[in-house]
Amino acid sequence: MRIARFTVADQIAYGVVDGDLDDGASLTVNAIDGHPFAPFKRTSARLAMSDVRLLPPVLPNKVIGIGKNYVDHAREMGGEAPTTPVMFLKPSTSVIGPGESVVLPEQSQQVEFEGEIAVVIGRLARDVPPERVDDVILGYTCANDVTARDLQRSDRQWTRAKGFDSFCPLGPWISTDVDPGGLSVQTEVNGDIRQSAPASAMVHSITDLVVFVSSVMTLIPGDVILTGTPAGVGALRDGDRVSVIVAGVGRLDHTVRVAG
């Protein structure tokens, strides 16, 4: 099932996306009664995808990022993959939805893309054992962990570099009932493939990450875990068109523009 958050006629709602992903014209959104973090019912309202505007699929209380979770990316950053997951936080105000623009801030001269598989938490979770991880995951979506690389180096910590408004595109929807082991992520910039890797190449698996993060902080419905980016990160420029594709989940498209 694919669950989207959308707006139409100034009303915000959740809905189930039906149709063939390879034929965008066939996609429809069936509005639901309620929200996806509890049992819900489909309503009689069905809209063409072209008649709605997709929003970020969730408004997370917190976005938890994981650094250097692919060996090749750790090496391109000048080190080895850590034996323990490295966590950081992105503010909820960094989240934008499909079709919106990453805004290049004046403070940075080197803003880079980091396409990632994102995990959406579906229920309250603390100290989750490995055998219960699937129970607390609602589904998966696509993400871009946008990073001001020069500020990351100069600050020697990551809050400012990863925390600007618009630095966390999410979407286009949440895909449930997905085998996380079969996922893969690909990033395209202006139609050119810049990153590509299967989830199986992660140093710490999705199961391991949920166990680890929930041992540190309580996860609440709608929280998002970014699972790390593969090798191939690079600079974003004014006017770029970026796509993050997670096989079996969907495609997140957005643009880039300068501030002002």
Summarize the structure.
With 260 residues, the chain is mainly beta. The protein is built from five helices and 20 strands.
Per-chain topology:
Layout: E1 2-8, E2 11-18, E3 28-33, E4 41-48, E5 53-54, E6 63-67, H1 71-76, E7 86-90, E8 95-96, E9 101-104, E10 111-113, E11 115-121, H2 133-136, E12 137-144, E13 147-148, H3 149-155, H4 159-163, E14 168-175, E15 184-189, E16 192-198, H5 206-214, E17 224-226, E18 234-235, E19 241-246, E20 250-258
Parallel strand pairs: 6-17, 8-14, 9-20
Antiparallel strand pairs: 1-2, 1-5, 1-14, 2-3, 3-4, 6-7, 10-13, 10-18, 11-12, 11-17, 12-14, 15-16, 15-19, 19-20
Structure description:
The protein has helices at residues 71-76, 133-136, 149-155, 159-163, 206-214, and strands spanning 2-8, 11-18, 28-33, 41-48, 53-54, 63-67, 86-90, 95-96, 101-104, 111-113, 115-121, 137-144, 147-148, 168-175, 184-189, 192-198, 224-226, 234-235, 241-246, 250-258. It has 260 residues and is mainly β. It has 2 domains: 2-54, SH3 type barrels; 63-258, Fumarylacetoacetase-like, C-terminal domain (Fumarylacetoacetate hydrolase, domain 2, Alpha-Beta Complex), CATH 3.90.850.10. Strands 1, 2, 3, 4, 5, 6, 7, 8, 11, 12, 14 and 17 form a 12-stranded mixed β-sheet that branches. The radius of gyration is 17 Å and the shape is globular. The mean pLDDT is 96.
